[in-house]
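Hi again,

Forgot to attach this to my earlier email, sorry! This is the prediction with nicotinamide-adenine-dinucleotide bound. I've pasted everything inline since the attachment limit keeps bouncing my files.
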Amino acid sequence: MRTRAAVAVQAGKPLEIMEVNLDGPKAGEVMVEIKATGICHTDEFTLSGADPEGMFPAILGHEGAGVVVEVGPGVTSVKPGDHVIPLYTPECRECPSCLSRKTNLCTAIRGTQGKGLMPDGTSRFSTLDGDPILHYMGCSTFSNFTVLPEIAVAKVREDAPFDKICYIGCGVTTGVGAVINTAKVEIGAKAVVFGLGGIGLNVIQGLRLAGADMIIGVDINNDKKAWGERFGMTHFVNPKEIGTDLVPYLVNLTKTPFDQIGGADYSFDCTGNVTVMRQALECTHRGWGQSIVIGVAPAGAEIQTRPFQLVTGRVWKGTAFGGARGRTDVPKIVDWYMEGKIEIDPMITHLLRLEDINKGFDLMHRGESIRSVVLY
Ligand SMILES: NC(=O)c1ccc[n+]([C@@H]2O[C@H](COP(=O)([O-])OP(=O)(O)OC[C@H]3O[C@@H](n4cnc5c(N)ncnc54)[C@H](O)[C@@H]3O)[C@@H](O)[C@H]2O)c1
Ligand SMILES: [Zn+2]
Ligand SMILES: [Zn+2]
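Structure tokens for the complex follow:
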């Protein structure tokens, strides 16, 4: 069939809207009509050319929601008409990683997904001239119709609006999941969140959901203060305006009359800046503080600290897709949204048509959007 897509033809160039060919689903695959897709920082990372693993031409996009229209042979867990969210971290429930119960990083299709191909080593997308176009993160939600492995779709309830729950395909789950699954934050905790963008604000609402007492937001953009407060932030710090070093400032803020050591129980990097990652580790509490790296750093960047920071009990951890097992956890997060436990609507600041998708990248560059969503 033919479908309309925004194609990343080359690194550093705007996406091109065009008709492309899409082959039907093969064994173990499903075809999905994408109804809405968010534009995430990671799409921009790849499009810009900064991603060392980026390949072109490709159809980007990994934060979608839609309806199954066709299933290939052997597919049993979904059927045409089912509402689904594509998963860039699949869940096969059979590989050593899934069976370990210690990680969400399913390895069943990792090799081909990283090469922009379906599990049989071919692409379903091609230009009208017949040249192959690569998939992206196994999702390619910047196409109106796409094909995905069955293990890479989460079936969700049908009364949930596509233009909101698409955000659960990456940003919401990453932020909320980092708090619930990776850090396992407890009631009464003190936390610091670095970077109040589309991910950091979801960390903040995850901390509110978990019952944290003190939620300190750190951002170099003062416009983010109101945004953080909207979702439960209790204190805002702009490192450029405090006139002193950030780490001791944050440690002081968390001291109590009883605990004069100070430090956060948990911190989260949502910037991708390795200097910030160090600050995030070092502002946590001696003996038990945990710092969670969510941000994706530039190619070749390395993190630094003195080993003494770890010897004295601080823990550095990372998280991908918020530690969520997609097919199991994503439907639950959709329920939390529908039940009002988490918010999504105010974070979706811009709605765009596919023709205007490049405007979404411009809004991101200017720091004007939290999330732009494309409606098909
Ligand atoms: N681990 C994962 O699974 C995963 C998933 C999605 C995104 N990410 C990554 O998370 C990061 C954040 O994504 P986003 O969409 O929220 O980005 P964003 O651009 O919307 O937000 C980043 C925020 O950080 C602030 N910031 C920048 N430098 C800072 C500094 N030195 N100190 C304090 N604040 C600073 C910016 O002002 C901005 O508000 C990116 O690196 C992205 O690639 C990771
Ligand atoms: Zn993303
Ligand atoms: Zn698996």
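The two ends are 17 Å apart (CA to CA). The mean pLDDT is 97.

That should be everything now.

G.
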